[in-house]
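Build the 3D complex.
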Amino acid sequence: MSAFASFKSLSRAMFLGFKRDGGALFFTILFPLMFLVIFGGVFGNQSTAKVTVVQVGQVSVLQQALAHDSGELSEVMEVTRSGDRAAALGKVEKGDADAAVEQRDGRLIVHFSMADQVKAGTVRGLMNALVQSANQAAAGKPPAYTLEAQQVEDESLDAIQFFTPSLLGWALASAGVFGASQTLVSWRTKGILRRLQLSPAPIPTVFAARIAVSLAVALVQFGLFVLVAQLPFFGLRLGHAWWMAIPTVLAGVLAFLSIGMVVGAWAKSQETAQAATQIIVLPMAFLGGSFFPLDAMPRWMEVVSYVFPLRYLNEAMLNVMGRGLGPMSALPQIGILLGVAVVGALIAARLFRWDVT
Amino acid sequence: MAQAIQVKDLRKRYGDVRAVDGVTFDVEEGEFFGILGPNGAGKTTTLEIIEGLRRPDGGGVSVLGMAPWPRNDRLLPRIGVQLQASSFFERLTAREQLRTFGSLYGVPAGKADAMLGTVGLGDKADVRVEKLSGGQAQRLSIACALVHDPEVVFLDEPTAALDPQARRNLWDILRGINTEGRTIVLTTHYMDEAEALCDRVAIMDEGRVLRLGAPAVLVRGLEAPARISVPSGVLTAEEARRLPGADEAGDDGVSLTIISRDPSAVVAAMAAEDALDGVQIRGATLEDVFLDLTGREFRA
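Done.
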């Protein structure tokens, strides 16, 4: 008999089982979408992110402006200093900073990235204003005009750009870990694993079918998320390399399924598996940057975030979907996620048991 | 007749417990074979070793001339195993369930659907497994074991927790399967079930086979006395005790019961006294053999 026929029919059986499970449908599809709607709505009308500027070396125009700033400037702009010009430019390229400024004699040079056009425009406008007021000050006249900081961008765009990929990451992580662990435990406690062991179908086929169903469900989650976020009310603008999010999503699902397999191979009951899943997924969602941006976290939390695979999934999706970076920007994270999948699968295979006793 | 299953000096221990301690028996092709024993006797472990789910510590098993361990995918299509009734994929209908199991063996959907009729579930095809009654789930689980037309069928306590009607119904189905020429191995702790279905039984306790043979032969070998009872008032206990062949007699106010190792003499004497109205004669059953071998004290 063909392994493929078994694969098809098992996938179909598992997909039907998933489709008919109201609870699973709600928690994997609707629940995360509700979060998207709430987060997109709540944070959509707030100014959250300032323009971040890296100052390279001495920039007297900027320094003087900040020294005399009565608050308007620091409300819209956050300045960090750097001695390393190449590193500063790199930060701008990656989207970690919105602009880098340096001063050469009388010239103020602003390096910016067109990836985020709104912020690029803001920075240029701000710097232009600074230069003009410095000119007036240098001319020795009292300024005829004063700078008044205005919120020139619609911040809701930024919120949805961030929340679409990161809430999707959380949804994928919980669906993956939960789905794999529950399936494994319930198959074992119900004796389905043994029943499959007694059929001539190759065992890898059985697992491949389960994985295929999870990957398909993940693509549905991805599609729904992106469609909803692109509604005018939310206004997601996908980056040009958004398609790179698809392999990223698949790699992420493999990583989380494999973590779920470890939980499922270890846990003796569904209740234990459920509790373990929560303990893994919830902290990971917070510290992996699903509910608020990593750059808004204290330094130690950011360091901790590197432990969680979700961080890499979020980062890669954010790069290609939200930040509009090129397709290569997701590759390192995809590599890490696949690595997690392999390590998890190896551990799960060690812990695997066919039956309860 | 050829041997479908040969088990020789099988041993399996879990820590200090000898779950299976030197079990030997053969099952012939087409035979209906029962493994009886109290809980914890080693029935299920023996069955699982024969099916190839567990590796024995010692001894040998051959099923249809092949070793079941390690997982043997030339043997697997030729055996059918029924596990507990709950071994189903979640939220599938009876038909989908059967088709899915069938597909693992390369069985076409049409043939899988026909199997539903065989076990009398034709009208439940679109009912989800969670909604089936205990007896229906048990029949579906047997259908799943039979869907690929196996030569040897293993059933682990198939009628546990079923009501009397459902049990009788399942017996008819099992007899039908056996009549088609399949070899059936069944574990049970219902003696009436073994007596009604099995050609031969092995009575197990503490990992060993205590007796092996046809149920009727085992019962006769026990030489247990028969119990003859008539409604109270026809004879007094005193009169009954003096009848030729009577060993013991007692009257509980409802029935007079005579215990005898020569029941024909007692009945003849009772006929002479015209005292046979409402007579009941009960011989020993497999249950008596079982209790005689394994003891009557309760074991949790």
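The CA atoms of residues 30 and 150 of chain B lie 12 Å apart.
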